[in-house]
Amino acid sequence: MATFDDLHLAMGRFLTESSHVENVMFSLYYVCTPNQSIDRRYEFMDETFGRKITIFKAACNAHPFSDEHRAILTDAYNDLDVLLPKRNFIVHGSTHHIGLSDKPPQPYRIGKRKGDYNFLNNAILNDFTDPHVFTIERINKVTEQFIALGSKLATVATEMMMALVQSFTATTRNC
């Protein structure tokens, strides 16, 4: 039977992987906005995840990426749009240990939207199958989606960083 410790481990892994995606997004944003002040760039980190996605997309859309990188980013944008509500439900949810009828209790992370005061009732009435209800297995699935997204973004970020290093190295050799 699943325990709170199992849920906490799943959530810790989820937070690590979703944070990794945010860090790679910041790296790409940083490289795509070379003329912004340091303070302006760091404001990105204080934004909500949804706002970060908007800022990230705008910066990447304005940057002259190769067709290959543009295709990866377009795919990543779709992933971000799909993951945003799941991420927000998990991060801003509450943890419950509930069982129904003949089923043993298990831990759930149940998300809530602003103004949705029936979120818990709906979760129970719908046998914990609503999109805002996360079992350990569902959290693990979202984590795997973040891992895949992080890999996509890292492909673009790594190639961009390598190009910057090569450019910097060439410039310093000429000095």
Uncertain regions spanning at least 5 consecutive residues? none
Strand order of the largest sheet: 1-2-3
Total number of strands = 3
How many domains comprise the coordinates?
1
The helix count comes to 6
Mean pLDDT: 91
Q: Which outline best applies?
A: elongated
Strand content: 5-15%
The helical percent reads: 55-70%
N-C termini distance: 65 Å
Q: Over the alpha carbons, how many angstroms does the gyration radius reach?
A: 20 Å
Q: List the secondary-structure elements in sequence, H or E.
A: HHHHEEHEH
Largest sheet: 3 strands, antiparallel
Structural class: mainly alpha
Plain-language structure description:
The chain is mostly helical. It has one domain (4-173). It contains six helices and three strands, in the order ααααββαβα. The protein has helices at 4-32, 38-43, 49-62, 67-91, 119-125, 136-173; strands spanning 94-98, 106-110, 133-134. A three-stranded antiparallel sheet has the order 1-2-3. Strand 1 (94-98) and strand 2 (106-110) form a beta hairpin. Helix 1 packs parallel to helix 6, helix 3 runs antiparallel to helix 4 and helix 4 (67-91) packs across helix 6 (136-173). The chain is elongated.
Write the layout of secondary structure elements.
Elements: H1 4-32, H2 38-43, H3 49-62, H4 67-91, E1 94-98, E2 106-110, H5 119-125, E3 133-134, H6 136-173
Antiparallel strand pairs: 1-2, 2-3
Helix pairs in contact: 1-3, 1-6, 3-4, 4-6
Summarize the structure.
With 175 residues, the protein is mainly α. It has helices spanning 4-32, 38-43, 49-62, 67-91, 119-125, 136-173, and strands at residues 94-98, 106-110, 133-134. It is elongated.
